[in-house]
């Protein structure tokens, strides 16, 4: 399986600079997107968050500072690294960029090799720091991988895979804020069920926005599965506006809870990648 390319968004109204950066980072193995207007940059980040934004300050509509402010105040985009790339050299401008949560500040003219290294370093810091989901606060990324890697080497564990089907359809119809509220509510209900009938050693994490994993043992797994599915299924209606709850055309696209079980007896698993693949296939 090929490794996913890091996605860069270059926000620059100077087309020559934008084209040069696009060509350079494509050759360096990045997937590059470009935006010439601040409003377009905000929309792109909200719909398909990039791994990093290279952001000019002087833009035709809203300036880069306003773009950064909006990204930092949106739960979906608040953790995207931002590198300001600008002609503004004043100390006050640099401080403003850093106060808004910018990860770096580079002035024009710039050294393209230096920019590449700063992009690499910002992405590395982000990767190391990604241990909890910004919406649900559940373990993900490296912290989740560490826990699942322990299972590859041990016996006696069972996992419950919980999937939210049609979450993308919900997001497209009601927006990212409503979708994030659903994720937060569902994660709280799952966590509450684990506290009620689980054990201190049980582990709840998030594989991706629509997939959760609960690591427990065979004795508690079926009890937890029933408790969790009952709570979630009883609550799904409340996520929808009253006007949409009875619509027939919405029934086939409503959020549905799917669960699957994976245990150590289905192994051995060669590595973490094999375990994750089996887990996502469960249910």
What does this protein structure show overall?
The protein has 283 residues and is α/β, with parallel strands linked by helices. The chain has two domains: 123 residues, Response regulator (Rossmann fold), CATH 3.40.50.2300; 141 residues, Reverse transcriptase/Diguanylate cyclase domain (Alpha-Beta Plaits, 2-Layer Sandwich). Helix content is 47%, strand content 18%. The protein is built from eleven helices and nine strands. The strands form two sheets. It has a five-stranded parallel beta sheet with strand order 2-1-3-4-5, with helices on both faces. Strands 7-8-6-9 form a four-stranded antiparallel beta sheet, sandwiched between helices. β1, α1 and β2 form a beta-alpha-beta unit. α7 packs across α8. It is globular and about 65 Å long. The mean pLDDT is 89.
User: Could you please say which CATH topology of the largest domain applies here?
Assistant: Alpha-Beta Plaits
> What composes the largest sheet?
5 strands, parallel
Mean pLDDT across all amino acids = 89
Low-confidence spans: none
User: Within the largest sheet, what's the order of strands?
Assistant: 2-1-3-4-5
Helix/strand/pairing category: alpha/beta
Strand content: 15-25%
Structure summarized in a few sentences:
The chain is of the alpha/beta class and 283 residues long. The chain is built from 11 helices and 9 strands. It folds into 2 domains: 7-129, Rossmann fold; 141-281, Reverse transcriptase/Diguanylate cyclase domain (Alpha-Beta Plaits, 2-Layer Sandwich), CATH 3.30.70.270.
Task: Reconstruct the topology from this structure.
Elements: E1 7-11, H1 15-27, E2 31-35, H2 38-47, E3 52-55, H3 64-72, E4 82-86, H4 91-99, E5 104-107, H5 112-129, H6 141-152, E6 158-165, H7 167-174, H8 176-197, E7 203-208, E8 211-216, H9 218-235, H10 248-251, E9 256-263, H11 272-281
Parallel strand pairs: 1-2, 1-3, 3-4, 4-5
Antiparallel strand pairs: 6-8, 6-9, 7-8
